[in-house]
Specification:
Number of strands: 8
Order of helices and strands: EHEEEHEEEHHE
CATH superfamily of one domain: 7,8-Dihydro-6-hydroxymethylpterin-pyrophosphokinase HPPK
Number of helices: 4
Oligomer: single chain
Distance between the termini: 40 Å
Strand content: 15-25%
CATH topology of one domain: Alpha-Beta Plaits
Largest sheet: 6 strands, antiparallel
Structural class: alpha+beta
Length: about 170
């Protein structure tokens, strides 16, 4: 492992079962330990589940990291972290302890069987766009050539994204 952080990645972490805050914190620690330095993070947001709506609300947070890992290596490390934190991949859009998505990696556009960057559904999901608006509203999506702000303004997802208020 090298200490040269030459790549910037935007990760969205989230989960909706178990101790949600503890799971996010465990993901933060594991990402910093094995993927790179966290240079910025959004507030935590709570949203209803997207897709399969008959499940608990999600907590989501955006992280910006500096990493030495190549995209596929970053993905493999993320999948390992998800598994270590109890993620099961039985049915798409099922409840999960943790989900970590690579939204952006530098200005890379990559479309392979294993990985698509930018994440193909960023512009369709407010739960991705709201934390991106907080941390990087002027970031331009290298595939769509639209800023986060423009994608947010064009998004027709009506799912409420609320700042998380612990009880």
């Amino acid at each position: 492992m090298t200490n040269q952080f030459t790549n910037k990645a935007y990760l969205l972490i989230g989960g909706n079962i178990g101790e949600r805050i503890s799971n996010l914190n465990a993901a933060l620690a594991a990402i910093e330990e094995s993927c790179g330095k966290i240079t910025a993070q959004s507030k935590i947001y709570e949203t209803a589940a997207w897709g399969n709506e008959n499940q608990p609300n999600f907590l989501n947070q955006l992280l910006i990291i500096e990493t030495w890992l190549k995209p596929i290596d970053l993905l493999n490390q993320i999948l390992k972290i998800e598994t270590e934190l109890g993620r099961k991949r039985d049915i798409p859009n099922d409840p999960r302890t943790i989900d970590i998505d690579i939204l952006y990696y530098n200005d890379l556009v990559l479309k392979s069987a294993a990985l698509t960057i930018p994440h193909p559904r960023i512009g369709k999901r407010r739960f991705s766009l709201v934390p991106l608006m907080e941390t990087a509203p002027d970031l331009v999506d290298p595939d769509l050539n639209l800023s986060i702000r423009e994608m947010y303004e064009q998004c027709d997802d009506n799912l409420a994204v609320n700042l998380f208020q612990p009880m």
